[in-house]
Amino acid sequence: MSLEVFVLGTGGTMPLPHRHLTSALVRRDGDLFLFDCGEGTQVSLKRMNLRWKKINAIFISHTHADHITGLPGMLMLSSQVDRTEPLYLIGPARVKEFFDASRRTLEMFLNYEIIVQEIRNPEDPQVVYTGDGYKVKSFPLNHSRVCVGYALEEDVRPGIFYPDKARKLGVPMGPLWSKLQAGESVVTPQGTTVNSDEVLGGAREGCKFSYVTDTAPHPGIVGQVAGSDLLLCEGMFTRDLEASAREKRHLTSTQAAEIAKAAGVKEVGLVHYSPRCNEKDLKRLLAEAREVFPATFLSRDGQTIEIPNRE
């Protein structure tokens, strides 16, 4: 199954009429994952006609306002629909404090379970969420507040199943084929044992999506996003503003491209643009990044990116 990435916003610091705050929704089969939830995230979801009601988990990078203040409205709105599954809220320290304070102050009505999971020892890369055939890992970033990036990685998938090989080995179509596709050995009606590697091609790697925003360069990022099919990475400043980026602990687009190149990702989409950036500035961000890593593009609000299965 493929991954679909919906870019809900690309801005940093404050929402603009034409640019919402950085956030992304990832869809994998029937599962939905939201990365960051700044002010106005609901508007982006509505505009893209996405089924936010079925979000499995919300991953918060850090507790700066432009990444979390859309959360109370999102959680309260979900109480107006029939939801029976719990919603996971995952992030570094103080996410629970923010949730508890918002719930208390707003007298938030919630008719479903919210499981708040704070990431302990966020300086250590770790698995923070798992599902059928995939996992989500967090890893440390270098910002003015404790901040983490995330990578959604699919498990290795079995190789392609070849029906003709199964038939030749005496395995009839039906439940035995399913077992072979799952990597199990089976016994044919004739009493012969057939191993899965006799009818399957080589194992196939799963897809990988990584999300990095609000950070200065950090030596651990490259290893954590390595091999990503898609990396959404902040490129907030142009090269001439590197000193300002360093002071505020952000990346230039050139530094984002250097991460992508070193990590061997397939492509990188820049996000978290400074509110001062107009269209001319964005083109400059892109040009500078492409000097280092040609497979760079400007992420745009409302953009949909499909990550096809690896064969």
Task: Report what the structure shows.
The protein folds into two domains: 3-157 and 204-307, 4-Layer Sandwich (Metallo-beta-lactamase, Chain A); 163-198, no CATH class. Helix content is 23%, strand content 25%. It contains nine helices and 16 strands. The protein has a seven-stranded mixed sheet. The chain has a seven-stranded mixed sheet with strand order 7-8-9-12-13-14-15. A two-stranded antiparallel sheet has the order 10-11. The model has no long low-confidence stretch (mean pLDDT 94).
CATH class bucket of the largest domain: Alpha Beta
Treating each run of at least 4 consecutive H or I residues as one helix, how many helices?
A: 9
Q: What is the architecture of the largest domain at the second tier of CATH? A: 4-Layer Sandwich
**Which strand order spans the largest sheet, edge to edge or round the barrel?**
6-5-4-3-2-1-16
Question: What is the assembly state of the chains in this entry?
Answer: single chain
Uncertain stretches of 5 or more adjacent residues: none
How widely separated are the two ends?
A: 11 Å
Total DSSP E strands? 16
Which series of helices and strands comes N to C? EEEHEHEHEEEEHHEEEHEHHEHEE
Strand content: 25-35%
Can you say what the CATH homologous superfamily of the largest domain is?
Ribonuclease Z/Hydroxyacylglutathione hydrolase-like
Rough shape? globular
Mean pLDDT: 94
CA radius of gyration is: 22 Å
- Which structural class fits the helix and strand makeup? alpha/beta
Number of domains: 2
